[in-house]
Known about the structure:
Layout: H1 3-11, H2 14-31, H3 37-56, H4 58-69, H5 80-100, H6 113-117
Helix pairs in contact: 2-3, 3-4, 3-5, 4-5
Amino acid sequence: MGIIEKIASMIGFKAPKIVDDINKTLATYVEEGYINTDEQNALRHYHGIKKLSKEYGEDVAYILGIANEELGFLYPPNSREYQDWKADTNNNAVGLEHAQNNIGMELDSIKTIEDVREPLQYLRVFNFSEYPQGKDAY
């Protein structure tokens, strides 16, 4: 059995559920006006990789983060897709580093608006509305 099969058998369908649950929690913060949808996306990557690291270990979280982003680096550097990939991989890397060094709060421990927004100072927020599909990001 290869590494990918081992990971798949170990995590089953729980990893997508973990990220879906994080996204639902973050959606409530959007509804309450604490963050916007672009910030929600950045925070989903950050908190998602942190939670996966806690649940399955840093190596599995790293592999899942890379696999999720697929081959975004193959897009032209000025494309929307490449810039989105760059932001997502950056936010995954920050989340993994914070998980490794026990930096920041877990999403289920957040109590204030400041707690929700605190990780954003480390993240790259890609403005989807500014760059509609097919339009160059820069």
